[in-house]
Write a structure and sequence with these properties.
The chain is 29% helix and 21% strand. The longest helix has 16 residues.
Length: 228
């Protein structure tokens, strides 16, 4: 039988069962439990109501721009016309290309975590959906990854734009920062994230949209905050 580590046994002492706690108390506990040497991610998980009064289940996929950033470092690739490559590089893109980048994508040999594409190049990238789609890298206008303003698109991703989508059971998860963030910054990100999700509630869903909220860290334990 696998035994829990000494570190994990220690944080289990802070476990709270069958009780909802407020966000400030949860943040204090989550930060306290982040005892690893690396800068753990502080993560939020929501249970949302998908049942619409008309039509099929609701599906949510959008982006939230966290006011204090996510702390996550993305490796950004930009697919654009040759005369826009200098602009993308100056804006901070890690990889920039046109047909040469398409060749790398076609071969499956790429290591970026976000791909931004100009509208003019979308016609060329469509056939690589089977390669990019499963990795969540297919550019999408709704997610800010198809853009004519490359400077803004790159800046948004570098400074805190996070993509969110629910699974078939209505679970939705994201990061709201790192353990190195102050409690104040994490609280501001948390409030902004929850309010942003609430604004996505369609009129065809009755009652509470957010049915439950949980907070944890990468290597920590989860705390239930309940619906908001």
């Amino acid at each position: 039988m696998k035994k829990n580590s000494k570190r994990y046994r220690e944080i289990l002492k802070n476990l709270i069962k069958d009780k909802k706690i407020n966000i400030k108390e949860a943040l204090d506990l989550v930060k306290k439990n982040s005892t690893t040497k690396f800068d753990e991610s502080i993560d939020i998980s929501l249970k949302i109501n998908l049942k619409q009064t008309k039509g099929g289940d609701f599906s949510l996929r959008t982006v939230v721009n966290l006011p204090n950033g996510s702390g996550k470092k993305n490796k950004i690739a930009v697919l654009c016309e040759p005369d826009m490559t200098d602009e993308a590089k100056k804006a901070g893109a890690d990889i920039v290309g046109s047909d040469d980048l398409l060749e790398k994508i076609a071969s499956g040999k790429f290591d970026f975590t976000k791909l931004i594409c100009t509208p003019e190049m979308m016609g060329k990238i469509g056939k690589y959906g089977k390669v990019l789609g499963p990795k969540g890298l297919m550019p999408n206008p709704k997610l800010g990854t198809v853009a004519t303003d490359l400077v803004k698109a790159i800046k948004d991703i570098k400074t805190g734009l996070v993509e969110i989508r629910n699974d078939k059971d209505g679970n939705l998860a994201s990061t709201i920062g790192r353990k190195s963030f102050s409690a104040e910054k994490l609280l501001e990100n948390y409030n902004h994230f929850v309010e942003s999700v609430k604004k996505e509630k369609p009129d065809t869903i009755k009652g509470e949209f957010i049915k439950g909220i949980f907070l944890t860290s990468t290597m920590g334990i989860s705390y239930k905050l309940g619906a908001k």
